[in-house]
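Please annotate this fold before class:
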Amino acid sequence: MKKIIFLPILIFTFISTSVFSKNDLYEKIDLFGEVLENIKKDYVDDVNQAEMMDSAINGVLQSLDPYSAYMSPELFKEMQTDTSGEFGGLGIEIGMEAGVVKVISPIDGTPAERAGIKAGDYIVKIGKEQVQGKSLMEAVKLMRGPIGTSIDLTVRRKNVKKPLEFKIIRKIIEVQSVSSKTISDENNIGYIRLKSFNENSDNQFLKSVKKFEKNFKIKGYVIDLRNNPGGLLTQAINITDFFLDDGEIVSTKGRKISETRKFFARKGDEIKGKPIVVLINNGSASASEIFAGALKDHKRAIILGENSYGKGSVQSIIPLRNGGGMRLTISKYYLPSGKSISEVGVTPDILVEEVGNDFKINSEKDNQLNYAIKLFNS
């Protein structure tokens, strides 16, 4: 079946009307039919034509970018079903790169993070199944399962020669998106760790800020977005707005006019201009990059750490007439400077490479946080 892997690339060349005229396109479609007929007649093994076409359709979408994908009717229905209390997860945000599942970020406190999975890892094997050739949604399905059951992941890691193997126990993933504490000997630095941008993150975040402002003589804030895979655009805008008096926060641009929008800050800085250091790493993605990028462009914060992931696009789920669905990129994010986040990410003002992977407050091993604290004391 390996030869069939090349079909998606073939189809993509067929449907690109920007390259071919209508006659050329019809000729290519006829050619595709001829290829299918020859596979059916002469290929060494019997093939499931329905599965082959699903793979071809998915290949078209995945050739566009790592986030577009096809879902069969079965998979689409499963993704829409509320499985609360029935299925467990690992706690990782993933994408596709070169046909392999790439870890965007492990979420703090989840089984994947505790097992040692890191941002940038490539998952090459799930259980006994090779990931190469599978869609993102198929990989997600393989990783899901009953709570308490285990799964073996084989990963490739940059600068590590041999593949790494992890056994992870599935659990219900419940993320408390905001945690906070005062740090430094004088308790005058407010530290807020934002793990994701979910529906209530802005309220939790603002509650932490107001508590600091009321009870402590805070001279500045460290906002920790490391390994934050993102979340809701509205939450990124709301939380960024807490620290800006005016100006653009982010814009989205797509082919449709409805997908081209700009979002601006409203007057009112919740901390009245106090200095901010934002911590980012390779696992900071999407909404995290909007927040860090906007504060950087407005010179409202110092960005410290490593280059962020570079996930700067918006996906929409589109139902299809066969009962399946497709996840399609419909627009991209742009920072106030006009720069795109996609595939580029946010570059820190101060590059401090991560040592270890310990983000516990006041940890001596957390060199990035310790560097941030020194900035306030210098």
Notes: The longest helix spans residues 22-42. Residues 1-18, 82-86 have pLDDT under 50 and may be disordered. The longest strand covers residues 325-334. DSSP finds ten helices and 19 strands in the chain.
